[in-house]
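dumping these here so i dont lose them again. two proteins, back to back, each one seq then structure tokens. dont judge the mess
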Amino acid sequence: MAYEIPVTQARAELADLINRVVYGAERVVVTRHGKPLVALVSAADLERLEALGEPAAEPEQAPTVTSVSRLGSAPSAPGERQRFGITAEHRGPEVR
């Protein structure tokens, strides 16, 4: 059975939820208005699910999952920093 948590609470407890999934071998279902929205599962669980050959969601509903380490650096779109209230920016190592 999975642990259920409302999305508003999940935002505040994300680091703890990740630890519960990774180290506590739990599955977490994030809900909105009492209905399941997304699930947090370990990478090992995801691999097992994919190995079962579960059909993917419809293309317009399928999420795009990409490793952040493979994205590299991309500048923010104009206005996005202000829209999301971002006050800091990662600039990476300085080139001398």
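---- next one ----
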Amino acid sequence: MRAVVITEHGDPDVLVVTEVPDPEPGPEEVLVAVRATALNRADLLQRKGFYPEPGPPRAHEIPGMELAGTVAAIGDRVSEWSVGDEVMGIVSGGAYAERIVVHERQLLRVPAAVGLADAAAIPEVWITAWDALVLQGGLTVGRHALVHAGASGVGSAALQLCRTLGARVVTTTSTTKVEACRALGADVAVDYTVDDFVEAAWEATDGLGVDVVLDVIGGDYLARNLKALRTGGTIVQVGVMGRGRTEIDLGALMPKRARLVGTVLRGRPVEEKIAVTQRFSREIMPLFDTGAVAPVIDTRYDLDHIAEAHRHMESNANIGKILIDVGV
């Protein structure tokens, strides 16, 4: 099969499409013929050598953390899927390839309203946003969230989730993406190049502060997130697009009885990935069928133009997901 293999770390040109052996499914695994995958910031870090796939090294380092495709073969104990089923899912790596094996319970059905080609834009960012806001942040109807990078993949999912849950949301974005964030459900879209999101959060909540912060930036945003937070609120850190190191005033953290939660999906044990995937299937997947939510797709590239796709993500010009068409 064809796959993108990292043989050395560096700029996008190190990404090489080459032939590698097809994987074989284990007893509880499904072999998926990949129709499309999608880019995530973790892919850029892995390419540079900063975020390797967890677990024992594979024979070939193939990035890619989400996919949509068709079941091509099943293991002896697989009971939930049949050959020909259209599926999507999250993985720890290996999705930049024509075929991949996935545990059967890490897979989700493809919503009919979305379709196979676009479904690869769902698993990673939607599960990340929902897990961070709802499961870890406790967001519910009537509460307030602050979502950074509202036009990103995670951000575009988070804004729609807040709107659907009946929560109010303040988001940060760049000048050219403000209107897109409003269209996705932001009650307040803050242009971070000219405005202060702390002031916007206080104004939107009548001086109480937000209940949950979903942050993919890090760095000096942490101290400002704390200022924007309500007493008893939660900051959920899911990325560090800015800087990973910063200082925080513990004297400001304690009186607010605040929680700071750091989280990633990629490094979790397979049992935890299965649990969150199955709950997402029950609670959120029906929303795609009704059209209440939908993946936001910025651009598509074919597998041979993977380096160009990485450059596009690094330019921070995208609104929503960047998809890679792998099969047909």
